Amino acid sequence: VDPNQNFLRVARAGNLAKVLDHLNSGTKIDTCNANGLNALHLASKEGHTAVVRELLMRNADPDACTKKGNTALHIACLAGQLEVVKLLIEKDAKVNCQSQNGFTPLYMASQENHVDVVKFLLASGASQTLATTDGFTPLAVALQQGHEKVVAILLENDSRGRSRMPALHVAAKKDDVRSATLLLTSDSNPNHQAGSGFTALHIAAHYGSLGVAALLIEKGADVNFQARNNITPLHVAAKWGMLPVVQKLLEHGAEVDCKTRDGLTPLHCASRSGQYAVVDQLLGSNASFGLKSRSGLSPLHMATQGDHVDCARLLLTRGANLDDTTIDLLTPLHVAAHCGYTRVAKLLLDHRCMVNARALNGFTPLHIACKKNRIRVIELLLQFGCAVEAATESGLTPLHVAAFMGHNSVALLLLQHGANVNSLTVRTETPLHLSVRSGQLEASRALLRCGAQPDARAKDNQTPLHVASRLGNAEIVALLLQSGASPDATCKDNYTALHVAAREGHEEVATLLLDHKASLQLTTKKGATPLHNAAKYDKAGVAKVLLSRGADPNARGRNGLTPLHLAAHYNRTAVTATLLEAKANPNCVASNGYTPLHIASRKNHLDLAGQLLSAGANPRAESKSGFAPLHLAAQEGRAEMCALLCSRGAGVDQASHNGITPLHLAAQEDRVPAAEVLVVQHGGQVDPHTKAGYTPLHTASFFGQAAMQFTPLHVAAQQGHLQVVSLLLEAGADPNLRNSQSSQANCKRTSIPSNIFELLRRVTTIIENWEEEIILEETIEISKPDTVAEHVMSESDDEAATMPRPRLKDWASRPEHQQLDSVLEDGSRLNATTLMRSDSYNEWSSSADYLKDEMQYTTGRLESVIEATGPSQQEDESMQPAGSTELLLTSPFYASTVSNLALQQPQQQPTIPEEGSAVDGEDNDDEDDVFVTQPQQAPPVDKQLVVEAAGLDAKFEAEAAGQAEEDGIPVADEVPTNQSVPKLQPPSTPNPPKDKDQLEPVPFIGDAASVDETTNDIEKIGTLSSQKESAVMEQIEPSSYMSQYKEPETLTPPENYITGRDNVPPQRVPVVS
């Protein structure tokens, strides 16, 4: 008997012992028969896992082929041997290896209906796109053989993502009627939902799969099935313009006016996408063109958003309301002006719409067009007689908006048509104020050339020069000065532009102002010079500029405070060095006699105190009450400061006018470390007496009555200080001493605590009958020793001490602010007048700041509904400012389809991307991402303008809490950062802050809340309240619904299967004998 044949026979029989005998006796492991079948092939076919494992351990080749190219994996899959398949794949058998006829292991398992093997192969990376030489795929053979479960598995795995669509949904997408029929045979529920909530009929509606749609309806699919957010198949078909499917759905009872959760009907969807035929079909089926979405959008608004003139004309022909408004009173003309669509705007104007219609807060289409720089739309509106001087509730004219946005061409066009260059808002701000505020140099120059007043006065008499100086925009400052602006013009409380520039640290601006003869001596109402401001806010650079131009370093403000006093108070070491270099007097005294060293000592500013002492400051200088810097340091417990002062010659026992020494104050405040410095390190007297006779020990014992011969032990006993009593007794205090009232230390049994009473009773030797004779006279009142009863700086010494407190921390947490946020989020109306008068903004709110809120509200609302608009073909792009492109709007309906809007781009059918391509982002595995977007070029994105609102120096606020701001430059309220209305970025931000600790300068003299109010007012132009609508309508949008599903290239069955020649059976894999 041939030993090789016997080896193959025992391997096929699964006799592991004899297999091992043959191998140990020298039989080759790759021995095969005439057909190329080896021991591994035969054991795999029969499912002998032990033999297979042993052969693989002995390095049998798992990819060895028979004469027909079949591997052990092919044979195991054909036989359905799952465990053997697992062993082979563990040993790296090629899962996609093809035999001579192109058969793969997956094909064989699919042909034989081995469901578990199919699942394992797919999980192991088997490709179902590999076809045989005749073009058959695993899906084709499974369909041919009628294996429903395998078909379902293959269809559901027809994607590369983590989440896979149900098989019926895939068949609906491919319009594969045969597969759908087979799947519905095994599953009679045609309304099966994917994880996204959509049914197969939704998918068929999107892709226009009329055959599968008809089959699903025949099998009982609900034509009015509401998926997530109440989206029906008719919504989807209408949006994508699938007219045959729309007609089929309507024929079978689809509700023509069904609404999504946010009130969008199929007519809204078709109008927004410009599906003229579908719009005509829906109107012919009695669809109502008067229905509105929850935000008030009508189908005419939707057609206008997409510049779909034909659809808009059709709706108007059928009787749509030309001036229909949203809940924010926006008409279709507002929408057209926002998007810059001249054709649809002309259509509306030709039908005599209201050219001056006012939206919420009073914005007209011209305001919106000016904000968006829609020059052609503006020309069209002017031709039809729009009001060029129309004002909003805050008094904002179109010229204000154009100036703020820096649209020079628009501003000149408005001026040519009679706009007033010096028009005022309700807070008396001119367009020049706003152009300066937003840093628009060219716009400011154009306004000045056209007659704008350079010294126009806004609220609190603020001029454009004050605004530019605050921003630090040197170019605009130079422009204003060259145009005749007064450098010494004062606003409220006599602040000049130089005061403002000094405070903000703008050296270049300060230099320009001084070059134009700005006064260094002018003071505020409280006597502060520009140098005082520079010293207070640590602007050493500006201080050098001012000193180099002749500023007096010893100028005295209110209560005699010099710049050096302020620098000492706020620990401004750099400015202090600058002032001292300029010969500032380190011993200058304020009206209460305090020198800068007094202030530094109390504030514990060691470095600054060292600077002053090195410059000759007198450490023994006395205030009007006789207190030296060492007194203040001791009272505050500044041990290091005490040591510094003593080492520089301070008198450790120097007494004030009433005899108080530093040790008295240290004892009074329980400053033990400071007392140790005074007594132990520098030999201070332990028992100095004040003029009233008090020693530090009296003070430490709290209150004493020296005139009535009270000892410290009397005081401590009466005040209940057990620890002090114990320390005094240990130090030898006599408990038997009497005062003038003949009282021992413990004589008041009823007036001292019991624990002290018991302690004294044990050590007192003079016993009286005080337990029986309770003394009834009143307790003798003990007065407090003399202390320091003055402040280093009184509340009125500092600038703005009488100004209102800053509210940097509480504005964002105010209930009113939270209520405002909720209003914006819920899409409710916002009363602009109420907001303008809101207590959330303090008395320095400027009209331009309120204007920002108002305009942002209006624009944000419109942008939240309008999809993504690019410049129309009619728009002259040369009129756009440099670097300016159109705004990318976030639509609730078409949140991410940036390309669908331009009418000039023809509508395309949904296309299937190439394999491996990304569709609408990187997330290609979402279960509800089935729709595919048609590839189009997105329009450019516009960067919008915002004026960043910020408050005072955060570092200063932390150090000087409770100190208010200077007159005329109020403290900024904290600007909330969680506004639901989007902030828009300015074309340029002049002079950003250099210090991270310093907040950005407020682009106005007013407070930060008012500045933020200005920009928000402009940004609100043209807004619709439909924030939540996007969450609904994005579900039928390609980017988030089905666009990210990628179809493999070869998923489609072979040609003869598709064309109907399905009577030709696929070739079967030869059975291994």
Automatic annotation (TrEMBL):
Residues 920-930 have a biased composition (Acidic residues). The keyword Transmembrane does not apply. Gene3D superfamilies: Ankyrin repeat-containing domain. ANK repeats lie at residues 35-67, 68-100, 101-133, 134-159, 196-228, 229-261, 262-294, 295-327, 328-360, 361-393, 394-426, 427-459, 460-492, 493-525, 526-558, 559-591, 592-624, 625-657, 658-691, 708-740. Pfam families: Ank, Ank_2. GO terms for cellular component: cytoplasm. It comes from the Eukaryota. Keywords: ANK repeat, Repeat. This is ANK_REP_REGION domain-containing protein.
